[in-house]
Amino acid sequence: MKVLIVEDDPLHRAYLGEAVRGALPECNTVLEAADGLAGERLAREHISDRVVMDLQMSPRNGIEAARTIWRERPDTRILFWSNYADEANVRGISRIVPPGAAYGYVLKSASDERLRLALRSVFIEDQCVIDREVRGLQQKSAGAVSGFTDSEYEVLIDIALGLTDRTIARRRNLSLRSVQNRLQQLYEKLGVYQPNDGDPEARFNLRSRAVTVSLLRKLVNHTALERAEMDLARWLERDGHGPKP
Amino acid sequence: MKVLIVEDDPLHRAYLGEAVRGALPECNTVLEAADGLAGERLAREHISDRVVMDLQMSPRNGIEAARTIWRERPDTRILFWSNYADEANVRGISRIVPPGAAYGYVLKSASDERLRLALRSVFIEDQCVIDREVRGLQQKSAGAVSGFTDSEYEVLIDIALGLTDRTIARRRNLSLRSVQNRLQQLYEKLGVYQPNDGDPEARFNLRSRAVTVSLLRKLVNHTALERAEMDLARWLERDGHGPKP
DNA sequence: CCCGAATCTGCGGGTTTCCGCACGTTGATT
DNA sequence: AATCAACGTGCGGAAACCCGCAGATTCGGG
Q1: Is pLDDT above 80 for A24?
Q2: pLDDT bucket at B94, cuts 50 / 70 / 90
Q3: Nearest nucleotide, CA B183 to C1'
Q4: Is A100 exposed, middle or buried (0-12, 13-18, 19+ CB in 10 A)?
């Protein structure tokens, strides 16, 4: 059995190596990569279908690397090992996991024993293991109060990028009013909307404020922004100069 | 000689402990704290005037901890040890370092030898040691193209928080137009301003866009935002309900 | 003392946001 | 077939934003 470790911090990489060797005596080869790109390459060359993957890395973060790995080999078991449990990551992962694939998500703050268990469960038993803290997020994101639709998340990203209503409309093939509709829902759900009863003193610029609280609540984060920015740049090249109606 | 290590990641903490013991044989006591709060307490109890400090931690990040430590004992030598070299951190630190104090800033990606040298230089020789990458930022921030005035940085934070022009004016005791003036300068310096020559197609909402590029360039970051948000909340309590002219 | 340079301020107007009101489409449920 | 929820669209208007123009203020030299 081969296990591939993708993690940029050398200390953590060494620690993971220890943990894998300790938890999986049936594993005879441990491969190590220091970033997403190298990880993809190693996974391709050696036919390694068990991966422990850090999230924030550069170049190529864990989510991107996982996506290409899963695209080539959907039955790969991937255990994500991250510092944070924020919505941007959770949403990003649940977006790319192939149906039926085994994967896991444990926090770096978890105990050695938790990590050990997760390694065995995911790599040997083909089970999905998700830390309780992360699990909480998934519930919320699917369900009730703070749960966005995909389309709402879309405009959230767009205004976070600093796009104009009109540009968003063009990009998403919507009318101006529809974009603004989604924005209203977004403001509502983020608890940013100000019913101007009595004193019409608008303290906040809703647009910017929405971005801020999303950042503070980690609905979006730096790497999500970077990714979105690159997508945007690509779109601007292609369709950004189209004819205006 | 006593050295205090403040670092939340246990692996990194252990590594730092090794490094300190190896580089400083004259050090007979190594104290360890896992977050800023504990760090402040330990520094106060034991009279430790040599500190190795991580930046991102919670509760209480490194900058805040350093500030209270330096307030109580301005001659403390502090070596900052961080993952990132972004402007928000550098600006935050250079804002709080007492005149004449010895401090250092090395990246976690630095080699063992670099760390060793920095430890000896700062703790024994009372020299300031700042990594080259970080140094680059300092130059830029003081000088030319991407260098903001303090007042410009101020409005940047304010729009990042999602405040209205009018609210910013009230908060900073300025007229509306002055705020908008500073904003214009900001847009200019961030390279966001769009001379609408020919095609007046405004692609970006300058306000939001400014925040985005600041985030992408790490002129502001998550923890800076959190701090600013708390300041804002306090201000809203106190002066936010004042009489309107 | 007068001269820039930097900053603060008011005015005016073009553009963008924000949002209530109203109506049509789609798709799933009953 | 009827209904209901979710989503897309147009119209119109109040507020906010962006910014050129121009007149004040401050402050450090020559």
Answers
A1: yes
A2: confident
A3: D18
A4: exposed
Instruction: List bases, strand D, within 7 Å of protein CB.
Output: 6-12, 15-20
Sheet containing A2-6: give its strands across.
Answer: A29-33, A2-6, A50-54, A77-82, A103-107, A129-130
Protein-proximal positions, strand C, CB < 7 A: 7-12, 15-20
Q: How many degrees, rounded to 5, is the angle at CA B88 between CA A159 and CA A216?
A: 45
Angle at B220 (CA atoms; ends A38, A240), nearest 5 degrees: 70
Question: What whole-number distance in Å separates Cα of residue A40 and Cα of residue A4?
Answer: 10
Look up residue B74 and give its DSSP letter: T
Dihedral sign (CA B114, B115, B120, B121): positive
CA B57 from centroid of its chain's CA atoms? 13
What value does the mean pLDDT take over residues A112-122?
A: 94
How many helices and strands, by DSSP H and E, does chain A display?
A: 11, 6
For residue A6, report the phi and psi dihedrals to the nearest 5 degrees.
-120, 110
Taken in order of first residue, the domains within chain B and their CATH numbers are 2-142 (3.40.50.2300), 150-239 (1.10.10)
pLDDT tens digits for A41-78?
999 999 888 999 999 898 888 999 999 999 999 999 99
What would you report as the CA-atom Rg of chain B, rounded to the nearest whole angstrom? 21
Tell me, what DSSP letter sits at residue A204?
B
Q: Is the pLDDT of residue B203 over 90?
A: no
DSSP string, B197-216: -S-----B-HHHHHHHHHHH
pLDDT for res B152: 84
Residue in A closest to B13 by C-alpha: A11
Range name among A30-39, A67-76, B83-92 with the lowest pLDDT average: B83-92
Q: Check B161 against A209: CB less than 8 A apart.
A: yes
Q: What is the pLDDT of residues A147-165, one digit of tens each?
A: 677 788 889 999 999 999 9
Q: Cα dist. B221→A60, A236, B81, B212, B214 in Å?
A: 20, 26, 17, 11, 8
| Nearest residue of chain A to residue B218 (CA atoms) | A222
Which pLDDT belongs to residue A240?
Answer: 54
What end-to-end distance do the CA atoms of chain B give, in Å?
A: 59
pLDDT the model gives residue A200: 52
